[in-house]
Amino acid sequence: MTRTNARVDYFKPRAASERIVGAALFVCAAVSVLTTAGIILVLLTETIGFFRAVSLWQFFGDTVWTPLFAEKHFGIWALVCGTVLTSAIAIAVALPLGLLAAIYLSEFASEAKRRILKPCLEILAGVPTVVYGYFALTFITPQLQRFVPGLAGFNALGAGIAMGIMILPVIASLSEDAIYAVPASLREGAYALGATKLTTIFRVIIPTAVSGIGASVILGISRAVGETMIVTIAAGQQPRFTLDPRVPIETMTAYIVQVSLGDTPAGTLEYRTIFAVGMTLFVFTLLMNLLSHRLRQKALKGACL
Questions:
Q1: With contact defined as beta carbons under 8 Å apart, do 165 and 93 qualify?
Q2: Which phi and psi angles does 189 have, rounded to 5°?
Q3: HEC states along 175-212?
Q4: Per residue of the chain (305 residues), what is the pLDDT tens digit?
C-alpha cells in the first residue's frame, strides 16, 4: 500500500467520527431551539385565549388584580409594581456591595486572596432560593422590625434584601471580570500623569469597564425579576398597586405559583391568567437579556481595542 493510500485510509474513520460528533452537537442545539419554540408557542396559545375574554384595556388600564375573586379585575400593574419594587430593593443592595467587592478583588487583593475569596463569594450562588426565602422570613424581617415601624411579617423589604444577597455573586463576579480585563496600559498611563490609585479606579478603570458592569447589573435584575421562592415565602400574596416596601405584596412569579398549586381548574379564565402573566414576564426578561447581551458585546469590542 502506498503512502498516499495509507493517509486516505487513516483520515476516513477520523472524518466519519467528526461527522457523528457534529451531528450530535446539532441535535443538542436543535433540542434547545425547539424547547424554546415550544414554550413560546404554549404561552402564545394560552395568552391569545385569555385576551379573547379580557380586553387589553382591562389588562393594562386597571390597577386592581383579583381574577380569583367574585368581582374580577385583571389589572397587571399590581403585580408589576410588586416585581419592580422587590427587584429595585435587590439591586440597591447588590450593586454597591457587588461593585465594591469586584473592585477589591481586581485592584487590591493579591492573587492568592483572589483565588480564595472569589470562589467563596460565588458559593452564595449555589444556595437554594428556598433557603433565602426562609432566611428572609425568619431572620431578616424580625431584625428589620426592630428599626422599621409598621413593617409587616410579610413584606417587600425583607424579600428584596434576600434577593440582593442572592444576586450579589452575579454582579460581583461579572463586574470583576470586566474590571480585570481593562488594559494595564490605562492604569500605567494614569499613574504616569500623577493620579492616585483611587482616582485611577473611579476615573479611568470604572468608566472603561462600564459596559461589562452594566451587563452584570442587567443580568442581576433579570435574575431578580424571575425569582420565585423568595418572594413567595417572604413577600406575601397580596397584589397591591403600591411602592411601600413595608406591606405585603405579590409579584408575577408568586402569582403563577399560587395558581399553579392545583386549586384552579385547567382551561378556565382564571387558569389562563398565569399564561398572560407569564408572557408579560417573558417579554420583560427577554428585553433585559437582549440589552445585557448588547452591553457585553460592546464591552468585548472595547477590550479587543
A1: yes
A2: -65, -40
A3: HHHHHHCCCHHHHHHHHHCCCCHHHHHHHHHHHHCHHH
A4: 455 555 555 455 666 777 888 888 889 889 988 998 988 898 898 899 899 888 889 888 888 898 888 888 888 999 999 999 999 999 999 999 999 999 998 888 888 888 888 888 888 888 889 999 999 999 999 999 998 888 888 999 999 999 999 999 989 988 988 888 888 888 888 888 888 888 888 888 888 888 888 888 888 888 888 888 899 999 988 888 888 899 999 999 999 888 887 677 877 888 889 999 999 988 888 888 787 777 767 656 655 55
What distance in Å separates the CA atoms of residue 166 and residue 146, rounded to the nearest whole number?
A: 23
- For residue 181, give the C-alpha cell: 480585563
The 3-state DSSP composition of the chain as helix, strand, coil percent (nearest 5) reads 75, 0, 25
Model-level pTM?
0.84
In sequence order, the 6+-apart residues with CB closer than 8 A to the CB of 186 are: 204, 205, 208
